[in-house]
């Protein structure tokens, strides 16, 4: 296996961190692999431990904000230009998701698409004619991007549009640079560090009650985070599986309601709680008020995001993989 030089954007997040861990474990202990993590934080406390566990990988943290500081002179941009990368991984999300704060620049457009555009813009000059020849002779760039359910269907909400633009950008960039990309589109992803199911279970522990927005029969296709990470590694970084090119829906192995998913996790935690449906018109009305209050906790678009139902058909090429993913009942017992 050739030496990997991988740059992670979002490697400190819920999904990105799991992908990073899974990826590093699959690297052979021989070779000289380099993994760089770009993060807004000045330090990543767990990086040292990870480095000790994987001495054959050179792990490096580069502080940087790829959205608010797209300057070519920023540290992250300089670090990006300093190497010829074999892989890029992008799984970035704005603070406070799913409530956008346009006044702070925290929007789907800026993070799902804009940050990726900034990264690829920094890389573009390295694909000038001369270096393109060099790159062709070595390993072409492979991008792995976490998209989302509903992308690729020309749906009109901002979260779908930003993912569509990002996927189109990746298509163009790969064509222009003779590289390849994989965009995976999961539905809800759950696991030890998710902020959706866990937040509701914490609430249940305190008040023994969970308010659910709208109807309780919205169907999801939840995917356990380690299965998503495995898909990225197998089909994106291509250690065990076949290299896939393009964007692919990645539904979990079962269709279940959010209420059911939460109940499965509550059972594991031994918490009893009542789930109460808040009528959607009331929630929407409330969100219009919250939008104007300090903290901006909710708004109508975020309610739409949280109450949407997007069902995907597993693509033939991923049928076997999805069949072997953990069911929600198995997944919630893993952490
Ligand atoms: N979670 C789900 O259920 C789910 C389902 C489908 C699709 N997705 C997609 O998966 C992606 C990741 O989701 P997640 O749940 O893992 O998000 P997350 O836990 O909030 O992680 C976000 C990551 O983005 C990084 N980041 C944020 N702003 C940045 C900036 N300006 N510059 C550099 N890095 C920045 C953060 O790094 P620092 O904080 O260290 O800077 C962090 O690593 C999103 O695109 C989301 O749409 C998620």
Structure description:
With 335 residues, the chain is of the alpha/beta class. The protein has a domain at 5-188 and 223-253 and 311-325: Rossmann fold. The chain contains 13 helices and 13 strands. It has a 7-stranded parallel sheet with strand order 3-2-1-4-5-6-11, with helices on both faces. The protein has a two-stranded parallel sheet with strand order 7-10. Helix 1 (14-26) packs across helix 8, helix 4 packs parallel to helix 6 (158-177) and helix 7 crosses helix 9. The structure holds NADP nicotinamide-adenine-dinucleotide phosphate (NAP). NADP nicotinamide-adenine-dinucleotide phosphate is lined by residues 9-10, 12-16, 38-41, 65-68, 91-93, 112, 146, 148, 186, 188-189.
């Amino acid at each position: 296996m050739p030496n990997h030089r991988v740059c992670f954007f979002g490697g400190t997040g819920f999904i990105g961190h799991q992908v990073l861990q899974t990826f590093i474990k699959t690297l052979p202990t021989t070779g000289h692999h380099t993994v760089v993590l770009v993060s807004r934080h000045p330090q990543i406390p767990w990086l040292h431990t990870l480095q000790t566990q994987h001495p054959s990988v050179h792990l490096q943290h580069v502080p940087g904000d790829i959205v608010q500081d797209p300057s070519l002179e920023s540290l992250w941009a300089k670090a990006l230009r300093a190497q010829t990368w074999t892989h890029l991984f992008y799984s970035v999300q704005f603070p406070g998701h799913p409530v956008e704060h346009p006044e702070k620049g925290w929007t789907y457009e800026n993070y799902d698409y804009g940050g990726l555009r900034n990264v690829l813009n920094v890389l573009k000059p390295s694909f000038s004619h001369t270096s393109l020849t060099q790159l062709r002779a070595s390993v072409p760039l492979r991008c792995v991007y976490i998209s989302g359910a509903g992308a690729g269907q020309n749906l009109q909400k901002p979260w779908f549009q930003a993912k569509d633009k990002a996927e189109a950008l990746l298509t163009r960039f790969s064509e222009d640079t003779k590289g390849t990309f994989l965009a995976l589109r999961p539905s809800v992803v759950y696991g030890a560090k998710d902020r959706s199911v866990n937040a509701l279970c914490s609430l249940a522990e305190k008040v023994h009650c969970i308010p659910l927005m709208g109807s309780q029969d919205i169907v999801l296709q939840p995917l356990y985070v380690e299965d998503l990470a495995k898909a990225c590694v197998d089909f994106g970084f291509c250690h065990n599986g076949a290299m896939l090119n393009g964007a692919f829906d990645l539904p979990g192995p079962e269709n279940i309601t959010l209420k059911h998913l939460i109940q499965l996790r509550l059972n594991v935690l031994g918490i009893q709680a009542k789930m109460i449906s808040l009528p959607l018109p009331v929630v929407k009305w409330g969100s219009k008020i919250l939008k104007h209050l300090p903290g901006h906790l909710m708004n109508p678009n975020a309610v739409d995001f949280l109450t949407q139902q997007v069902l995907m058909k597993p693509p033939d090429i991923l049928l076997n993989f999805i069949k072997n993913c953990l069911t929600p009942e198995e997944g919630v017992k893993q952490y």
